[in-house]
Structure to design on (230 residues):
């Protein structure tokens, strides 16, 4: 399983762009990179997922270099409501030839605090 | 509305009294999983299921059982709860198509064992 390393915490201000980087040096060929957001006492919420290069959706962008050993979640123009814990998850749910890959391990997450 | 529903949301029980936390999803997802979350330890996977009648251990399976008799339900069973199982529990489901790991989480069950 690919182990992930993220900064424990980050601070930002409203309106700024925030970039959170995750390191995953032993990522496997089949692994996807997925980011989740979690508010206190709520379940994690899917933000974005990618395999390589750049992925963008309505809330974030995900940048993945060619070697895939790291990834960066980019949140444009954050607001106070973006204060949360952000988790990087590397893994796969591939079920091939009787071998399943459903064991997913979350990292410790990054506590993002957005200030007025 | 597409959702993962856990019950109960809150539960206080005594050591040794068997309990079941239910989890149900209405998205026809193949993959379901249980996590526990403790301060300073993040989310740790207890058990997961790739499909009906297929379950496997996660990182912290000791003291827990699961079953997957139907696609939509994935109950978590604590045969003899102990205080170290006091935690916030989350159930999640995923389409399981291909390799992607986009998952939908329930609202959580806060369990206290005294």
């Amino acid at each position: 399983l690919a182990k992930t390393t993220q900064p424990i915490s980050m601070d930002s201000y409203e309106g700024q762009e925030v970039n959170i980087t995750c390191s995953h040096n032993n990522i496997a060929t089949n692994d996807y990179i997925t980011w989740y957001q979690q508010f206190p006492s709520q379940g994690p919420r899917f933000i974005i997922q990618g395999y390589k290069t750049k992925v963008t959706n309505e809330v974030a962008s995900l940048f993945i270099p060619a070697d895939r050993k790291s990834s960066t979640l980019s949140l444009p123009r954050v607001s106070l409501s973006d204060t949360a814990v952000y988790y990087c998850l590397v893994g796969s749910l591939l079920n091939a030839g009787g071998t399943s890959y459903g064991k997913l391990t979350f990292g410790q997450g990054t506590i993002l605090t957005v200030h007025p | 509305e597409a959702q993962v529903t856990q019950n109960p949301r809150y539960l206080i029980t005594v050591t040794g009294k068997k309990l079941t936390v239910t989890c149900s999803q209405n998205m026809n997802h193949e993959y379901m999983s249980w996590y526990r979350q403790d301060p300073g330890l993040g989310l740790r996977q207890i058990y997961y299921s790739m499909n009906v009648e297929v379950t496997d251990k996660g990182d912290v399976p000791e003291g827990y059982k699961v079953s997957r008799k139907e696609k939509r339900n994935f109950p978590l069973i604590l045969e003899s709860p102990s205080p170290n199982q006091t935690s916030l529990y989350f159930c999640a489901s995923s389409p399981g198509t291909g390799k992607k790991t986009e998952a939908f989480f329930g609202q959580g069950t806060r369990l206290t064992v005294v």
Q: What stands out?
A: Chain A touches chain B through 28 residues (CB under 8 Å). The mean pLDDT of chain A is 89. Residues 62 and 73 of chain A are 5 Å apart (CA to CA).
